[in-house]
Specification:
Length: 147
C-alpha cells in the first residue's frame, strides 16, 4: 500500500475550521455563501482523526471580520475556529449554540407570519439547549432538519 499525504498551503489571513463532523463541510460552504465570495477555500473531507474517527477541515482565506460564528455554532457547535493572520494562528475559538439565529433557516409553517410578510426576518430561538431545539420566534414551529 502506498502512503500519500495531502498538503494544503498556508493561508495569510482567514480561518481554519477544524473538528467539523464528517460530511458537513459542504453544508457550511452553502450557509456561509462562500460560492459568492472571491476567496480561496480548501475543503478536506473525511480526514482521519484520533478524536472523531473521521472529520472535515476547511481553510478559508478571507478577511477575518467576515465569519459569522453564530451560523457555525448552529450547524455544529463542536467546530474549532482557528483565526489566522500573517500565516500564524492568532486565536482559537470554541463555538456554542447561539441563543437566536436570524435569516439562516426558514420557517416551514404555512400559517406563520413570515410566509405572508415577505420582508420579515426569519428568527429562531434556542428553546432547549440540551436537545438543541430551535423554534420560530413568531409561531413557535419547531425547526426540523429535513435532509
Amino acid at each position: 500500500m502506498v502512503k500519500t499525504t495531502l498538503n494544503v498551503g498556508r493561508i495569510s489571513e482567514g480561518f481554519v475550521l477544524d473538528h467539523i463532523e464528517a460530511g458537513k463541510s459542504m453544508e457550511i460552504y452553502k450557509y456561509l455563501h462562500l460560492d459568492k465570495l472571491d476567496c480561496c477555500v480548501a475543503i478536506i473531507k473525511n480526514a482521519r482523526s484520533n478524536k472523531m474517527g473521521k472529520k472535515d477541515i476547511m481553510k478559508i482565506e478571507c478577511p477575518i471580520d467576515f465569519m459569522d460564528l453564530d451560523i457555525l455554532g448552529f450547524i455544529d457547535h463542536n467546530i474549532t475556529v482557528n483565526i489566522v493572520q500573517n500565516e500564524e494562528i492568532v486565536d482559537k475559538k470554541r463555538l456554542t449554540l447561539p441563543k437566536e439565529i436570524r435569516n439562516v433557516i426558514r420557517c416551514k409553517n404555512p400559517r406563520c407570519i413570515t410566509s405572508i410578510e415577505q420582508g420579515l426576518d426569519h428568527v429562531f430561538v434556542l428553546t432547549d439547549e440540551e436537545k438543541q431545539i430551535y423554534r420560530c420566534k413568531y409561531c413557535e414551529e419547531k425547526y426540523t432538519d429535513n435532509k
